[in-house]
Design a protein that fits this description.
mainly beta; Immunoglobulin-like; seven-stranded mixed β-sheet
């Protein structure tokens, strides 16, 4: 059984970014109360603005900070309606007390990564209401970055907290990436990256399978439209995308993971997947409008 690794239930139809320094929940539509659910959690955004002109925070994976980057850690809470509220902690600290891999501002959570990569993951901690809240982070070499998004195949809305493992052509593990609040992932990887595998038990219980990229799909160095799946208020909106080249991932024992990208070499820049990765919800139907039987689609794939 899949495990739902999310703090509280995120309402994907709402993507509100609030701010309540004292931890007071925001007010819902019509002045109704919108209480917090779950505990505070530490998240990360790119302070430089990953998408210029969007006017919104761009969420990042703390395990994929690259050397020399500046990011900001935030302590956030979610309300019953799914609003994201930033709260002000009493201070920030990191386990890297020698500041070998970077320096964090204790009052703002802004983290400036050093030029040295971390061999093992570190921990950043926020102190709030006499409690500590932490998340692991890692500083990776400044190599290429694969950027994409995981969306629901029916609603076209983002799917956060899904973990992916990346490998080279020989099946050597290169590192993880996890989708953020907006469903995107940013994997800092060596140029040998060739395949990825979804960790199936990190998928929400509301979906059962994923779609894959066809091995002939190209990549691009400009952001595709599907990453702009939000309006000016931060609310997720269903995006339109062409499913040409997307197929059911008929995988299981003895079936290999298909190539991630068709290109064989990269430079130190950002590459966007030309299409999103799609997950299929229960009750979905195939192209002939027949119900899809999840028992006929085995989970996972092997990495040669």
């Amino acid at each position: 059984m899949k495990q739902l690794r999310m703090l509280g239930a995120l309402a994907f139809g709402l993507y509100l970014i609030g701010c309540a320094g004292n931890g007071t929940p925001v007010t819902g539509p019509g002045g109704t109360a919108d209480p917090f659910v779950g505990s505070p959690k530490v998240e990360m955004i790119y302070t430089a603005g990953f998408f210029p002109g969007s006017g919104l925070p761009t969420f990042g994976d703390p395990m994929n900070i690259r050397t020399g980057e500046q990011v900001q850690f935030q302590l956030v809470r979610y309300t019953q309606s799914g609003a994201r509220v930033v709260v002000t902690p009493e201070g920030w600290r990191v386990s890297d007390t020698t500041q070998t891999y970077g320096v964090i501002a204790s009052n703002t959570g802004i983290f400036q990564a050093s030029t040295r990569q971390s061999d093992i993951s570190q921990v950043v901690t926020a102190r709030f209401s006499d409690q500590d809240y932490s998340v692991s982070y890692s500083v990776r070499p400044r190599q290429i970055r694969i950027i994409g998004s995981i969306l629901n195949r029916v609603t076209h809305l983002p799917v956060p907290n899904v973990t992916m493992y990346f490998y080279d052509v020989n099946g050597v593990y290169l590192g993880p990436a996890t989708t953020t609040y907006d469903g995107s992932f940013r994997a800092a990887m060596p140029s040998s990256v060739a395949r990825f595998q979804i960790v199936n038990d990190t998928l929400p219980d509301t979906v059962f399978r994923l779609m894959r990229h066809d091995s002939t799909l190209s990549v691009q160095t400009t952001s595709p439209d599907y990453l702009f799946n939000r309006n000016s208020s931060g609310t997720p909106v269903a995006v339109s995308f062409d499913q040409t080249g997307m197929q059911w991932r008929l995988t299981g024992v003895g079936q290999t993971c298909l190539p991630l990208l068709s290109a064989s070499s990269y430079v130190n820049t950002d590459y966007y997947l030309a299409k999103p990765i799609l997950v299929a919800p229960f009750g979905d139907v195939d192209d002939l409008n027949n119900p899809i039987d999840p028992d006929l689609l085995a989970e996972g794939c092997t990495v040669p």
